[in-house]
Amino acid sequence: MIKLLHLSDIHMGSGFSHGQTNPDTGLNTRLEDFVRTLSQCIDRAIAEPVDLVLFSGDAFPDATPSPIVQQAFAQQFRRLADAEIPTVLLVGNHDQHAQGMGGASLCIYRTLGVPGFVVGDRLETHCIATRHGDVQVVTLPWLTRSTLLTRPETEGLSLAEVDRLLLDRLRVALEGEIRSLDPDLPTILLAHLMVDAATYGAERFLAVGKGFTIPLALLTRPCFDYVALGHVHRHQILCDNPPVVYPGSIERVDFSEEKEEKGYVMVALERGRAQVTFCPLTVRAFRTLEVDLSTAENPQAALLKAIQSEVIQDAVVRLTYHLRADQMDLIENASLHEALSPAHRYTIQSQLVSQLARPRLPELGVGSHIDPIEALQTYLSDRQDLQDIAHNMVKVAQSLLLEAEDGGIWVAESGIQSSNSPDHALEDNRNTQLRLL
Ligand SMILES: [Mn+2]
Q1: How far does residue 340's CA lie from ligand 1's centre (Å)?
Q2: Gap from CA of 204 to ligand 1 centroid (Å)
Q3: How remote is the CA of residue 235 from the centroid of ligand 1, in Å?
Q4: Which residues have C-beta under 5 Å from ligand 1, the single-atom ion?
Q5: Blockwise average pLDDT, block size 10, the chain, 437 residues
Q6: 262 and 386 together in one domain
Q7: What separation in Å is there between the alpha carbon of 207 and the centre of ligand 1?
Q8: Cα–ligand 1 centroid distance for 53 (angstroms)
Q9: How much distance in Å is there from the Cα of 430 to the middle of ligand 1?
Q10: Domain of residue 104, residue span
């Protein structure tokens, strides 16, 4: 039996706006958070020890991370090399240069010849020797339309047609890999992709317009004993046999992941069987506080009470409160800052409740039928601020209506109609009433 640790979507170096500079280290605290979380995964891999570590893509926010971020990542993975644990690093969409040309940020591990490290930047089968026997890993990095198709092939095709063509290509290429597999060895498909059956979060927006969706049936082949996926940040198991698993991201990348549990996956693998255990990680909490003060008698007290009723210690907090314009002076900012100070980092946003909603004029309410000019006059008589132009407005409205009667467009009870027949229009217009909804 082969024991392996599967983690994904590290995104180290992202979300700095949710952190601050640590005065002791000079580093952004969110970088330190991500390093701490990654080190929990590596600690576990070494403590077991596992026979294999699989990383299924998106190491950094982009293909050119800053040296300090790259070093922080390398320092953790170096520990696996030292412990002689074979490791596969798959290239995700964030690790690629534009247009899917290789994964520069991860290929350095192949270039340096790090012992036991394999970089998956193309569809390929790797036979990896572990302490408990050989295992086959088919790597399928993030595919873009330009990975498998050339420009002349896609010319004049719609996006949907291009995606269909791409899927056909992938099906054929994957079939080629599958046919060359050793049927007696435990086999893993390690892929960075969106599966049609998955529930998406932030990653959908992070990769918007760049990707396409793979049907689950393409992955659930009996030749695979475990399908290790990356890309979707929310942990989910899409199929039990074989297990098709997104471990999810290891840290919260943004507020869309506020309510998600973060972790990695331990797998006990043999040919024809894989047992999966999700292992939660201790990560920093994110909290959204949304408070409506518009009906509160004492908005300041209500707001402080709302903050105090939440656990915000060391969390990344965003507070939004809604209030009326006349309540603004009742909010005292200094004590808000003090109440939020246990948070790791916080933002405060106040939003004015719309004051535009005014009661409707009863004469113009639903169900009352009056002439358009009469309706306009009723409206204008209620608008003191428009009195100086009211007379002119009525005159203009009258001439517009006359124009309409000459065969143009007029507003009728059922919406906007037009007619090319002036006679017909005139006839209809006599019966036309404006209903204000
Ligand atoms: Mn991704």
Answers
A1: 33
A2: 9
A3: 13
A4: 58, 92-93, 231
A5: 97 96 96 98 98 97 92 97 98 76 78 94 96 97 80 82 87 96 97 85 55 87 97 95 97 95 98 97 97 94 95 96 93 95 96 71 69 87 86 90 64 38 40 32
A6: no
A7: 7
A8: 18
A9: 63
A10: 2-280
Examine the domain organization and report whether 209 and 326 are in the same domain.
no
- How far, in Å, is the centroid of ligand 1 from the Cα of 241? 24
pLDDT at 156: 86
9, 110: one domain: yes
Total domain count, the chain:
3
Cα of 142 vs centre of ligand 1, distance in Å, is 8
14 plus 161 within the same structural domain: yes
Q: Is residue 257 located within the same domain as residue 313? A: no
The 3-class secondary structure across the chain, one letter per residue, is CEEEEEEECCCCCCCHHHCCECCCCCCEHHHHHHHHHHHHHHHHHHHCCCCEEEECCCCCCCCCCCHHHHHHHHHHHHHHHHCCCCEEEECCHHHCCHHHCCCHHHHHHHHCCCCCEEEECCCEEEEEEECCEEEEEEEECCCCHHHHCCHHHHCCCCHHHHHHHHHHHHHHHHHHHHHCCCCCCCEEEEEECEECCCCCCHHHHHCCCCCCEECHHHCCCCCCCEEEEECCCCCEEEEECCEEEECCECCCCCHHHCCCCCEEEEEEEECCEEEEEEEECCCCCEEEEEEECCCCCCHHHHHHHHHHCCCCCCCEEEEEEEECHHHHHHCCHHHHHHHHCCCCEEEEEEEECCCCCCCCCHHHCCCCCECHHHHHHHHHHCCHHHHHHHHHHHHHHHHHHHHHHCCCEEEECCEEEECCCHHHHHHHHHHCCECCC
Give the global pTM: 0.78
